[in-house]
Design a protein that fits this description.
Layout (H helix, E strand, L loop, with lengths): L11 E3 L3 H6 L2 H20 L8 E12 L5 E7 H14 L7 E11 L2 E10 L4 E12 L5 E11 L25
Parallel strand pairs: 1-4, 2-7
Antiparallel strand pairs: 2-3, 4-5, 5-6, 6-7
């Protein structure tokens, strides 16, 4: 059974092995969890706030499988990624799909935090098993994304509905309109 997406609350399952937990103090871990929860919420709601999570100098690695099954990998700067997302938001086009993060692992790497997870697309029902983020505090202490690696599959992998018949009561008002 596939997991179901709940629009009210983003799903974020944090699992940290004992080796990683020793490296991160509780305050850093809590800050990283708060960052991830806010980031997933921004993706799932499609607000312009999403753009503030990325550093202009970030490097985004995107692997896309098109509907014709051809796969292409691109590297995009944080500034270009923010422009692209901003343009799509302004045009009313869908930017990123609602997602869930599962089996999240957080590891310290100097001042940066490396985050690995399994990302599930709630719209097209596919898994990105190698999702990765690197975040670092900016001058204000707020985290920003320095590096992101993600997979996007434009092919819908959701199971078809059991029936195409709508089951609903239809009421016909026989009074003519004025």
């Amino acid at each position: 059974m596939k997991p179901r997406f709940n629009h009210a609350a983003p799903i974020l399952l944090i699992v940290i092995t004992s080796g990683h937990a020793a490296e991160l103090d509780p305050k850093t871990l809590a800050s990283a969890k708060a960052f991830l929860a806010a980031y997933v919420k921004a993706i799932n709601t499609g607000t312009g706030k999403l753009l503030t999570f990325y550093s202009d100098t970030a490097l985004i690695h995107v692997t896309v499988t098109a509907q014709n099954r051809k796969t292409q990998t691109r590297e995009i700067s944080g500034l270009d990624w923010k422009r692209m997302l901003g343009d799509k938001m302004a045009s009313g086009k869908a930017t990123l799909e609602p997602e869930e993060l599962h089996t999240v692992r957080i590891q310290g790497n100097g001042q940066n935090l490396e985050i690995a997870a399994q990302r599930y697309s709630s719209t097209r029902c596919y898994w990105d098993m190698n999702y990765r983020l690197v975040i670092t505090p900016d001058g204000t202490g707020r985290y920003q994304i320095l590096n992101e690696s993600l997979f996007i599959d434009h092919n819908n992998q959701c199971p078809p509905p059991e029936t195409l018949t709508l089951k609903q009561a239809i009421r016909i008002n026989q009074n003519p309109l004025p």
